[in-house]
Amino acid sequence: MFFEKDLLSFNILDVLELKQRNVNMFNSGRNFNALSFRFRSDAVLITKTERYSMKDNYVSYFPSRLDYTRVAAVDEMIIVHFDTINYNTKNIEYFIPDDPTVLSELFRKIFDVWNKKELGYKFKCSAILCEIFAECYTQNYVSKSHNPKIHNSVEYLLKNYKKSSLSMKEIADKSFMSEVYFRKLFKKEYGISPQKYMIQLRIQNAVGLISTGYYSLKEIAYMSGYNDCKYFSVEFKKAMGVSPSEYLYNYKPGEEISRRDSAAPTAKETMLATPSN
Q1: Does 52 reside within a domain?
Q2: Strands 33-41 and 10-27
Q3: pLDDT, tens digit, for every residue of 184-218?
């Protein structure tokens, strides 16, 4: 998820409040990310492959270059538009906070500070957005403990995903269950297979390493859990829409990676880190 990145570099572009009725809007090709908190909503988000219902108190992350249609009788939210240089995904990511009051207050605070535009407001808003990320992380992490049966396996996966020899059997063994049963429980809890989740963790790690400019692509592949550089390139392109070398070529500090000449990948929404309702 967007808030699980250890050091997320971002540049806030705008903070908006929307109070809309009877919406039927197509969003296409936006070259910025969006993070929203919905105060009141019955919105339905539709992509080529998925359909999701938004409700009151949902926190949602929308990556750049995502095409979708938003339909709602009522949709009231505060949205932060921002660039990021070391996190990219093709997926909408969202969760329902256990304590929405804290997040609703933070979103109202960032909106208020941004619109008053007092001296140093951008620094203050950046600090508030970091608070939002931290609160999202804290509340979402709690949700990972809903099923204690796989807790040990999930913790082991998060600590060892960079190990190239890591297998699903090894992960499942930490919870004393079969691989098949672990896969079933994991997908029910997180809405994604453990294998895909591990790949996403590895690619996110690789993106962060590329942004440092310190390592070769071969070194990055190895440090992200891949012994085979060609296989790493295939997995990276599936996730990011471009090869690691193209990503590196287009990377410039201070600019969003997704602003490139290559075609944007087809969007597919995945609820990544919260149990299905």
Answers
A1: yes
A2: unpaired
A3: 999 888 888 999 999 989 988 888 788 777 889 99
Give the Cβ contact number of residue 213 at 10 Å: 9
Q: Which of 2-11, 47-56, 81-90, 251-260 has the lowest mean pLDDT?
A: 251-260
> What's the number of domains the chain is made of?
2
Whether residue 27 sits in one domain with residue 85: yes
Given its phi and psi angles, is residue 107 left (phi above 0), alpha (psi -120 to 50 degrees) or beta? Answer: alpha
Name the DSSP letter for residue 140: H
Residue with tokens 């997040």: 103
Cα–Cα dist 129/200, whole Å? 23
Residue given tokens 């962060």 in the structure block: 208
In a domain, 262, yes or no: no
Q: How many residues does the chain have?
A: 277
The CB-side HSE value for 143 (13 A sphere, CA atoms) comes to 23
| pLDDT above 90 as % of the chain | 52
Q: 90: domain range?
A: 2-143
Is 162 found in the same domain as 57? no
Do the Cβ atoms of 241 and 255 come closer than 8 Å? no
The three-class DSSP label of residue 206 is: helix
CB neighbour list of residue 173: distance below 8 Å, 6 or more residues apart:
none
Per-residue pLDDT of 9-34, as tens digits, reads: 788 999 999 999 999 999 887 888 89
* CA angle at 34 for the pair 254 and 94, rounded to the nearest 5°: 125
Residues 41 and 119 in one domain: yes
Q: Enumerate the β-bridge partners of residue 60.
A: 36, 94
Sorting pLDDT into bands at 50, 70 and 90, what band is 253?
very low
